[in-house]
Amino acid sequence: MKMRLVFLLLTLVVLVAARPKAGPKQKCKSGPVDLVFLIDSSRSVRPHEFETMRKFMIDILSTLDIGLNATRVGVVQYSSQVRTEFSLKAHAKLDTMVKGINEIIPLAQGTMTGLAIKFVMDTAFVAEEGDRPKVPNVVVIVTDGRPQDRVAEVAIEAREKGIEIFAVGVARADMASLRAMASPPFEDHVFLVESFDLIHQFGLQFQDKLCGVDLCVESKHGCEQICESSPGSFHCLCLPGYSLNEDGKTCAAIDLCAEGKHDCEQICNASPGVFTCDCSAGYKLNDDKKSCTMIDFCSFGNHSCDHECVSVLNGYHCRCQEGHRLLENGKTCQAIDLCAEGKHDCEQICISAPGVFTCDCNAGYTLNDDKKACTPIDLCAEGKHDCEQICISAPGVFTCDCNTGYTLNDDKKACTPIDLCAEGKHDCEQICISAPGVFSCDCNAGYTLNDDKKACTPIDLCAEGKHDCEQICISAPGVFTCDCNTGYTLNDDKKACTPIDLCAEGKHDCEQICISAPGVFTCDCNKGFKLNKDKKTCTDMDMCNTVKHGCEHQCVNTPGSFYCICPEGQLLQEDGKSCGTCKSANIDLVLLIDGSKSVRPQNFELVKKFVNQVVDSLDVSAHGTRVGFVQYSSRVRTEFPLNMYHTAAEIKAAVMKVDYMEKGTMTGLALKHMLENSFSESEGARPLDRNIPRIGLVFTDGRSQDDITEFAKKAKEAGITMYAVGVGKAVEDELREIASEPTEKHFYYTTDFSAISTIAENLKLNICPAESQGEIEVKDPCACESLVEFQQATMSSLEQLTQKLSAMTARLEQLENQLLSKK
């Protein structure tokens, strides 16, 4: 009756399992996949739970199309270590794969999930282990606990390599760790179940992720027990204990005992689809209803055995404890004395116990780790002594001694240092420093120890150069003082010396120039004067009559010097001697030309012609007018400085060779460059005290992209006359801000480049009015009205001075004649 109920229950299970949506064993319709199970076999996974995990893997595999050209599967288990159970290329069939899973032995250690993911990424998914290119890599991690190492970083690395990770947590698993492992979206890749018994739920969901349409679910398959899908089809299967009939749908109970499908240890009794176990004679069935245990006859009494009763199949025998031997009666035991029988290897003393022995040592010795040999006890080495310095050992005893330089006290333990200095047993000249049994010598401050390490020599800091006196060092043992040479005085720092400057202190009687040397002086005269015989006073020299002055027109003497003047209508040239017309008036002219993108190449050629028109109006030479050319856009470039070319032809040729820059319009940057560089003496600008006019001419066609205010103002404050020329989209306000006052005479604008030649002509009029050829009224051919008035006033003053000088010259000649007549 009981067996019948069991059979009915199994039949019900079969019918439930046969429902289309009940079991996971429907073949997957997905393409090829390389799938690795990563199984947690830590000690927290109990044996029956591991069996559930094993069945879980087999159930999922049953749904997959297994094969070397279809789905490949590998299994890796981990705990504190990681082990490959079989690789992706190991099995081509499901049955051998299932056999491999059933043979897995759990590791039962810690939970190093991060280490396991790293292992799978680097070792499992490689070509040598069966990984295929362009085939999806999938990992199913099953774990029941929190990882003992870091998983987030290695999981990210694995996902970046294209590995899709499913994380299945059971019972105690940590959801945060599962989400750190799994691929997104987490709702499709993270599963947490309450126990291993519910893990099959994941199997259903996992199948949905990998498989397509399931014909077992979508059609009337007619399978009695289990329907299993395959790509585009299905077939029927039966539960364990049943076989599929020839109709391919119904199932018949099988004899599990006859087929060997049981786990009885001895006897299997079969029923349809089930079995029971039994045992052979002399054995009894255990509580697991499978294994058998031999009947223990000793449990019924010890049968007069002296020590132990040992059961055997259908009987028993007596056995003695270790160290005893069984006598002939088979029941009595006798102790074995190994020491007395000489069956030992003790070095010194053997102590016997039944069947065993232990070794010991004589006084003063200790037993070695091998428990047989003896070693003398070294009380010195063990620190079991009270010697202050040296311990001398004998087996179990010791004596004391002292280091060199010490003597042993009466207590035979402590030591006293021998003080050779105190005992006068040394030959140091000054200081004796004692150490136990030895001494060393030293010297008093200001002395150094000689090479014999005994005598001392005074330290001469001056001779050794260990001083900072500027001139004279005076030495005493270990110290020094400073002094100065004649004509110098010692500073307050008592080291440096300062020359005594009699000229600066006014301690001289020179009329004009006093030349100082330390503690002494000599007299000299200004240029144009000569020193008298008293070496102190000076007499003026008539430079116009005594030197070759080189004046082209007239030389005018001044005290100690002279200057040249020109006739009316001419100007003194840069050399200060020759005279010239307005055409040869000197200026330093820097042309600041806009080479931005908006100018365009064809217009830039017109600008260069404009520049050469201006150059034509100038008297260019090394001592006359100098011209520099600077081009700017987003940056600034000096095309040639003021001192490069000395003829108009050279300048015009250089202008025509200038390359167009393009890009932006940084006029402020160009003004800064002109002020700081172009008008520097290193680039050819003449010194300000020469009074050579400095002119800057800015040519632009658009608004500046930077601020011009600061350097436009600084240029004019530096005495540079600024002209601003604008074309096209040039901003009038910026041009006026650049131009010098009056703005109307220094600011020009035209709407297009074709009109710039007219501007060039107007510029000529302002730079040199003499070139106007009657277009404007000119009072003097060499300058504008203000320059003429200034020159006329200057010439009038010079004429008055000349008249006075002529009178003085006549008076001097008269005095000289009188002196000559007296001689």
TrEMBL record:
<protein>
    <submittedName>
        <fullName>Matrilin-4 isoform X4</fullName>
    </submittedName>
</protein>
<dbReference type="Pfam" id="PF14670">
    <property type="entry name" value="FXa_inhibition"/>
</dbReference>
<feature type="domain" description="VWFA">
    <location>
        <begin position="588"/>
        <end position="763"/>
    </location>
</feature>
<dbReference type="InterPro" id="IPR009030">
    <property type="entry name" value="Growth_fac_rcpt_cys_sf"/>
</dbReference>
<keyword id="KW-0245">EGF-like domain</keyword>
<keyword id="KW-0677">Repeat</keyword>
<dbReference type="Pfam" id="PF07645">
    <property type="entry name" value="EGF_CA"/>
</dbReference>
<dbReference type="InterPro" id="IPR019466">
    <property type="entry name" value="Matrilin_CC_trimer"/>
</dbReference>
<dbReference type="InterPro" id="IPR001881">
    <property type="entry name" value="EGF-like_Ca-bd_dom"/>
</dbReference>
<dbReference type="InterPro" id="IPR026823">
    <property type="entry name" value="cEGF"/>
</dbReference>
<dbReference type="Pfam" id="PF10393">
    <property type="entry name" value="Matrilin_ccoil"/>
</dbReference>
<dbReference type="InterPro" id="IPR036465">
    <property type="entry name" value="vWFA_dom_sf"/>
</dbReference>
<keyword id="KW-1015">Disulfide bond</keyword>
<dbReference type="InterPro" id="IPR002035">
    <property type="entry name" value="VWF_A"/>
</dbReference>
<feature type="domain" description="VWFA">
    <location>
        <begin position="34"/>
        <end position="210"/>
    </location>
</feature>
<keyword id="KW-0175">Coiled coil</keyword>
<dbReference type="Pfam" id="PF00092">
    <property type="entry name" value="VWA"/>
</dbReference>
<dbReference type="InterPro" id="IPR036337">
    <property type="entry name" value="Matrilin_CC_sf"/>
</dbReference>
<dbReference type="InterPro" id="IPR000742">
    <property type="entry name" value="EGF"/>
</dbReference>
<dbReference type="GO" id="GO:0005509">
    <property type="term" value="F:calcium ion binding"/>
</dbReference>
<keyword id="KW-0325">Glycoprotein</keyword>
<dbReference type="GO" id="GO:0005576">
    <property type="term" value="C:extracellular region"/>
</dbReference>
<feature type="signal peptide">
    <location>
        <begin position="1"/>
        <end position="18"/>
    </location>
</feature>
<keyword id="KW-0732">Signal</keyword>
<dbReference type="Pfam" id="PF12662">
    <property type="entry name" value="cEGF"/>
</dbReference>
<dbReference type="InterPro" id="IPR049883">
    <property type="entry name" value="NOTCH1_EGF-like"/>
</dbReference>
<keyword id="KW-0964">Secreted</keyword>
<dbReference type="InterPro" id="IPR050525">
    <property type="entry name" value="ECM_Assembly_Org"/>
</dbReference>
